[in-house]
C-alpha cells in the first residue's frame, strides 16, 4: 500500500465533510470474543456478501478471488471437517479459483514492475501447483524467474522478487517428496536471492527507500531469510541498521530519510516490522537482545495507536495490528474486528471503508484469517507473507 491520507467523510447528509482521525483511543477495559464463533461469522459474511462470481478479478494473493481462494485453501488444512452451506472449505477455494480462471486471458503476464504476490498468473500457478500436486505447473512457475533476472525488476514483496520468493516457498512445501521439483525450486530461489542481494542499496520502490514489510527492506530481508536462512549472516548488518531507524515512539518510518511519525500499520510502520522480526529472529542470534528491545518498544506504540479507523484488515487495519501483539492485548484489539463493531464504527462516522472488502489483505478474508490464528492459537503470522 502506498502512503495514503485518510479520506474525508460526512457523518450525516448535509454536513460538511470532516476528517477521520487515523486511530481512536485505546482506553476501554480489556475484552475478548470467542474466536471460533467470530471465525464462523466472518466466513459466513464472506460467502454471503462476496460470493465467488461477485468478486472482481485481479490482485493475486493480495486481493480478489485468488486471495479468497488462498484463504479457504489454508483454512481447509486447519479445519478439514468444517463446512459452509454444506460444502467443505476446499470446495469454496475451488469456486473462487474458478472465478479467477474465467478471466485468465485478461491477466497481464509478469513484468519487472509487477511480479510479486499481487501477480495473478504466478499466484494462480502456485495455488494450482499445490492443490493439484502438479510438477509441470511448478516448472511453469519457475520459468517466470526470467522476469526476476531483469535488472530493473522490483525487489519488494507485493510487486517484486521478494513476493516471488514467497510463492516458491508455498510450492516447495507441497513437494517435499519430489526431489526433482525441490531442486528446481531451490535453484530458482537461489538465483532470485542472488539478484536481490546484488541490487544497489538502499532497495527502492518507485524511487523511495521504503522500510516496511510490503514495499521495504524488512519485507525483503524477511522473504530472503525465510526462503534460505543461510543468507542471514550476510544480511545481519543491514538488519541491524534497520533496527536503528525506530522512532522514540516505537514506530518505524515508512521510508528513508525518515519523515513524520504517522502510519502504524503492517504495510508501513511498527506492526509489519514486529511481525517480520518475530519470524526471522531465530536466524539472527547476535541480534536477539536488540530485536527483543525493538519489539517491546514497538508493541507499546501499536497498543497506543493501533485502533485504526480504516476498515479492519491485515495490511492497514486493526486485524494486522492485533497480530503484532500478544496475549490479552492481541485478544482485545481483535474485539474491534467483529461485524458488530465495524457497523458501529461506520454508524459513528469513524470507518474508512475498504476498496476491496472481500480481500485477504484488505477485507473480510483477512479478518477471518486473524480469527483462525486466534482460534487455533497459531503463531501470529500473516498468510501470504510469513506463515511459511
Layout of helices and strands:
Blueprint: E1 8-9, E2 18-19, H1 35-49, H2 65-78, E3 83-84, E4 87-88, H3 89-101, H4 120-132, H5 135-143, H6 145-148, H7 161-172, H8 179-198, E5 209-210, H9 217-227, H10 232-243, E6 255-256, H11 270-280, H12 288-305, H13 318-323, H14 327-334, H15 339-347, H16 364-376
Antiparallel strand pairs: 1-2, 3-4, 5-6
Instruction: Output the radius of gyration.
Output: 20 Å
Count of β-strands: 6
Shape: globular
User: What's the rounded overall pLDDT mean?
Assistant: 95
Describe the structure.
Keywords: Metal-binding, Zinc. It holds the Pfam family LANC_like. It comes from Ampelomyces quisqualis. This is Lanthionine synthetase C-like protein-like protein 1. The longest helix is centred in the middle third of the chain and has 20 residues. This protein has a domain of 144 residues. Strands 1-2 form a two-stranded antiparallel sheet. It has a two-stranded antiparallel ribbon with strand order 3-4. It has a two-stranded antiparallel ribbon with strand order 5-6. It is 48% helix and 3% strand.
Provide keyphrases for this structure:
two-stranded antiparallel ribbon; 6hp_glycosidase-like_sf; LANC-like; metal ion binding; disordered N terminus; zinc; 388 residues; 3% strand; 16 helices; 6 strands
Brief characterization of the structure:
By secondary structure, the protein is mainly alpha-helical. The chain has a domain at 43-107 and 309-387.
Amino acid at each position: 500500500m502506498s502512503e495514503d491520507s485518510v479520506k474525508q467523510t460526512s457523518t450525516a447528509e448535509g454536513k460538511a465533510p470532516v476528517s477521520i482521525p487515523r486511530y481512536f483511543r485505546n482506553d476501554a477495559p480489556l475484552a475478548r470474543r470467542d474466536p471460533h464463533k467470530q471465525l464462523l461469522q466472518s466466513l459466513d459474511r464472506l460467502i454471503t456478501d462476496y460470493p465467488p462470481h461477485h468478486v472482481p478479478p485481479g490482485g493475486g494473493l493480495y486481493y480478489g478471488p485468488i486471495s479468497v481462494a488462498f484463504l479457504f485453501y489454508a483454512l481447509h488444512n486447519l479445519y478439514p471437517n468444517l463446512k459452509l452451506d454444506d460444502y467443505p472449505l476446499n470446495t469454496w477455494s475451488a469456486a473462487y479459483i474458478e472465478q479467477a480462471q474465467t478471466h485468465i486471458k485478461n491477466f497481464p503476464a509478469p513484468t519487472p514492475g509487477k511480479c510479486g504476490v499481487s501477480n495473478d498468473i504466478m499466484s494462480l500457478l502456485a495455488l494450482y501447483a499445490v492443490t493439484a500436486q502438479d510438477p509441470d505447473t511448478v516448472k511453469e512457475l519457475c520459468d517466470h524467474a526470467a522476469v526476476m533476472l531483469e535488472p530493473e525488476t522490483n525487489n519488494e514483496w507485493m510487486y517484486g522478487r521478494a513476493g516471488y520468493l514467497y510463492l516458491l516457498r508455498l510450492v516447495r512445501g507441497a513437494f517435499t517428496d519430489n526431489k526433482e521439483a525441490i531442486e528446481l525450486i531451490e535453484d530458482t530461489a537461489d538465483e532470485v536471492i542472488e539478484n536481490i542481494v546484488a541490487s544497489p542499496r538502499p532497495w527502492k520502490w518507485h524511487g523511495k527507500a521504503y522500510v516496511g514489510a510490503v514495499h521495504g527492506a524488512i519485507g525483503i530481508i524477511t522473504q530472503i531469510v525465510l526462503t534460505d536462512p543461510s543468507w542471514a549472516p550476510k544480511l545481519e548488518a543491514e538488519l541491524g541498521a534497520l533496527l536503528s531507524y525506530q522512532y522514540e515512539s516505537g514506530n518505524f518510518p515508512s521510508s528513508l530519510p525518515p519523515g513524520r511519525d504517522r502510519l502504524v500499520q503492517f504495510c508501513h510502520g511498527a506492526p509489519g516490522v514486529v511481525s517480520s522480526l518475530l519470524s526471522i529472529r531465530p536466524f539472527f542470534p547476535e541480534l536477539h537482545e536488540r530485536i527483543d528491545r525493538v519489539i517491546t518498544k514497538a508493541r507499546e506504540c501499536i497498543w497506543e495507536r493501533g485502533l485504526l479507523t480504516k476498515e479492519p484488515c491485515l495490511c492497514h487495519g486493526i486485524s494486522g495490528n492485533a497480530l503484532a501483539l500478544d496475549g490479552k492485548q492481541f485478544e482485545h484489539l481483535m474485539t474491534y474486528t467483529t461485524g458488530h463493531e465495524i457497523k458501529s464504527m461506520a454508524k459513528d462516522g469513524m470507518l474508512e471503508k475498504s476498496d476491496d472488502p472481500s480481500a485477504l489483505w484488505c477485507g473480510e478474508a483477512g479478518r477471518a484469517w486473524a480469527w483462525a490464528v486466534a482460534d487455533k492459537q497459531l503463531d501470529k503470522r500473516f498468510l501470504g507473507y510469513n506463515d511459511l
